[in-house]
Here is the input.
Amino acid sequence: MSGMTSIFGLLEKLQSADISVHQNRCAVVRNRNVTCTRCADACTSGCLSYEDNELVIEPDACIGCGTCATVCPTCALEALRPNDAELLQSCLSACAKADGEVIVSCEQILAAAQGRYDPGKVVGVTCLGRVEESLLVALAAADARHVSLVRAKCEQCAHAVGVETARLVCDTANTLLETWHAPMRADVVEKFPSVARLAGDEGYDASRRGFFSSVRDEAKSAAAVTTDFAVKEALDVEEQPEPKYVKVMKDGTLPHFVPDRRERLLESLRALGEPEDVMIDTRLWGHVVIEREECTSCQMCATFCPTGAIAKFKEADGSFGVEHSPSLCVKCRCCTDICPSDALWLSDEVFAVDLLSGAKERYEMKPMKNPPGNPHQIWHSMRDLLGCDQVYER
Here is the structure.
């Protein structure tokens, strides 16, 4: 029989199986001066908090809705049940049965409407905050006609913040779809579309079938976690914890990564064709502007940028600076939060064509007054800071 310690470990994994945490992706973990708290602000159950500069999930409070993963700009949080691929497949399957209509509903209204809708045409989620733009645009690329996010009485729901996230996601997706000339639209609605209604007697209770199907999926997921844990215990395999500190790369920056969701979104937009040559304002992308006269050439913006949207360059002639790629920006605002001279600001508008073209802007910087590597750097910097020459070093 397993010891008490291993049982607690198993329970802990089961309780956090809905959300995966990649702490080294979090902008706040990468630099403590970053002010992003979007996951905690959007959390529908109050389970998210920051302790010692690390994101913490309280499993007992988490309902696994995935809203935190929707709003996290760097995908430091990842929804697992269902994951993005599973949710997309469920939506495509329901779409094929509902004449091109995709219907996603929260579990509360599904429970209230049990027996009155066709579960084969409706995709259930814990909260509508689980839906995000890469899913909606992928459905548009797959020729879905419309997406209805059916909400319950959210004003009376303890997790009401989720529907606000869903509305924001729909607004962003609709802006993209309009710019890319796609006919599909997504809306948050209060009633099921007529196509979702049960068509006569099917000879069995379809809603019960849907219920037992969901129970089966939950059991399979739990069994997978249990089996994984048991195998690792039997083989005496110890999971390696995510390193608390990340080594810098050769250019002095922290490792970069582009979230999978962002890459899938850009691929779906590319599948839709060419956009209008206009500027768009969404929650997803930003355009970095650097005021050269205010900039101190420290390049901290590039050092901590999580995606490489701001990257260092240095030429053979000695010129150096940073390049900005709007398509890689995830609007985490790390750069604006950490700039020591407030020389950088983020525009909410980007050119739609730049998102697919990979356009870059180059900012050449002036030489630093006290460059790193100079053995007298601290001495010179303190003289400049204090504004006097009577500063001595020993």
Q: What stands out?
A: Residues 84-207 form one domain. The first helix runs from residue 4 to 15. The two ends are 66 Å apart (CA to CA).
